[in-house]
Amino acid sequence: MTTQVTITGTGTPLATHDRAGAGVLVRYGDVHLQFDAGRATVPRLLATGSSPAKLSALFLTHYHSDHVVGVQDLVLSHWTMDVYDEAARLPLLAPNGSTIRFCERMLDLWDHDLEIRSLHNHRAPHPKVDIIGFDAPPEPVEIWSSGDVRVLASQVRHEPVEGAVGYRIETPDGVVAISGDTVVCDEVAALADGADVVVYEAMRMDVIAQRPPDKQYIMHYHADTRQIGRQMAELTVPTVMLTHLIPAPVTDADKQAFIDEVREGGYRGEIMVCDDLDTVTLGDGSSV
Amino acid sequence: MSTSVIITGTGCPIPDADRAGPGVLVRHDDLTMQFDVGRSTVQRLAGADVWIPDLGAVFLTHYHSDHVSGLYDVVLTHWTMDRTDSVPALPVIAPAGSTAKFVASMLDGWEDDIEVRREHARRNSRPAIDLIAFDVPDAPTEVWRSGDVIVSAMQVRHEPVEGAVGYRIDTPDGSVAITGDTRVCDEVAQLAEGVDVLVYEAMRFSFFDDLPPARRYVRDYHADTPLIGKQAAELGVPTLILTHLIPVPKTDADKQLFIDDVRNGGYEGEIIVADDLHTTTLGSTPENGG
After folding, report:
1. Phi, psi (5° rounding) for residue A205?
2. Does B83 contact chain A (CB < 8 Å)?
3. C-alpha distances in Å from residue A227, one per residue of A157, A198, A276, B139, B157
4. List of chain B residues with pLDDT < 70
């Protein structure tokens, strides 16, 4: 068996044609785990060979529209694609507070659509989703498991957004950490301790610092490329996948600027400035 | 000046890696009008080089999730990308009833996100929709206009969904009709009378013959390809663009089946089995230099 980490979307709130909204898919055998669901997540899932109907669980990092604007489509598609009503219920795990409030209300507006479709196709009317809230823990705590796969969550630092978390996924092949949106902080270090792959959001602060003062506020709550490099070097993480890229790189030179800054932080491992669907495969950890 | 018709999404509820959800962008000069907003519409608009805050208006055909599930992203992005904090409310034109009700309350549930972004970015504005609801007319009726461009709506036949409409866009360069989701019916014929381009939803009914009965109900309310051909021939429409393609064509041979069906119906004009971002341009107006 192998564990595959695929970035379903490397984008941000600012729309670009080739970067879907935030999302990471982690697959180990039949266990398919999606983390966040920004715009266009559903088509990207299909492109990986997975699909909403194949997901074992969906995890959200925080309540910012670019991370959740694709959730409704994903949950509705999980239902519409399941034409013979065979799919298992989809667990949706998210930190308590605004993220869970959003989840609990997100299907309200679709009642009428679902009702009409159900009348017409004689199916049970509601998407099979189980919304499961957890209190954002101060250090990594297991919140979900299936067989050999464990998922842990820990708070990260994305204030003023409250209750933002990152995730750590452990499989027999290795460990994957997903920062979510955050500044570089000790909480990410705890999630990424001993990880084989860290999926890190990345912002080039030098570029943002040249914007007008009233547009610089986003520097308060994102991860600086040089500090990422320093932290990843300290943790000796073999592979770092950069995503949620700000400013969105268009050329190879733009990408190289991210790499150069992470190197300036002291990191010597593998750096991927990701495009959508970029994938890392973790070795064969079990002969199952 | 010219008018272009860009299919932003050729898909349907069943997701596909390459096909966004239903949507058609009609551009006339600087005016951009989006008809339906299925999944990934924002990305496709970016692919068509539309700066989202510049979007002129959004029109909805009916309340089925695949046609409106991208509206959140359009409305929120219309605001988040507006660096000037001065973009007016986005006009959203929709039939009264379930569609307008959806639009009226679609921002409920996003307040926490909007508030936290406003405070952090110190913005005074918030995402805003100018909802224009109209009673579903039984003959083509103007519902919106901007300069030389007139948009008319008319009911189509998509029961059991109530209040489904198609649209007709008349510009100095020519006319476009968009069926929305519907069976082939007289209403579409009225809407498409004399148009240059007809964007038609298309389903190959014969594909469902061998599927279990539980799968066939979708034929109750979609447009069968040979009937499309018959109607388009009677109307003498020069260009027919097929979208909302069911079953989803994967190969050129799959696409050819749609074409063959429409030809069997008697149509001899141009047929486009659209992929996302397919663009058709209506003749340029010579006095304005093209």
Report:
1. -60, -30
2. yes
3. 14, 14, 24, 63, 59
4. 284-290
Q: At how many degrees (to 10) do helices A111-121 and B98-105 cross? A: 140
What DSSP string runs through B235-266?
A: HT-SEEEEEEEESPP-SHHHHHHHHHHHHHTT
The answer to whether the peptide bond before residue B212 is cis (omega within 30 degrees of 0) is no
What DSSP element (H or E) covers B5?
strand B3-9
| Beta carbons of A164 and A61 less than 8 angstroms apart | yes
Strands B149-155 and A197-203: unpaired
- Spot the catalytic one: B16, B29, B54, B66: B66
**Mean pLDDT on A217-234:** 95
H helix intervals, A37-92: 41-48, 65-68, 71-80
For residue A40, report the phi and psi dihedrals to the nearest 5 degrees.
65, 20
Answer whether B102 touches A (CB < 8 Å).
yes
Q: What is the longest distance spanned by two Cα atoms in chain A?
A: 61
Please answer whether residues A50 and A31 qualify as being in contact, where contact means their C-beta atoms are separated by less than 8 angstroms.
no
Q: Is the pLDDT of residue A288 over 50?
A: no
Determine the 3-state secondary structure of B223 from DSSP: coil
Task: Decide: residue B63, CB within 10 A, 0-12 exposed, 13-18 middle, 19+ buried.
Answer: buried
Q: In the predicted model, is pLDDT for residue A127 greater than 60?
A: yes
pLDDT at B289: 40
Of A17, A76, A102, the CB nearest to B69: A76
User: What residues contact residue B213 under an 8 Å CB cut-off, 6+ apart?
Assistant: none
- Rounded CA-CA distance B285/B1 in Å is 6
Instruction: Establish if B247 touches chain A: CB-CB under 8 angstroms.
Output: no
Enter the ipTM.
0.86
pTM score of the predicted model: 0.91
Give the contacts of A86 (CB within 8 A, at least 6 positions apart): none
Token pair, residue A264, equals 């300036």
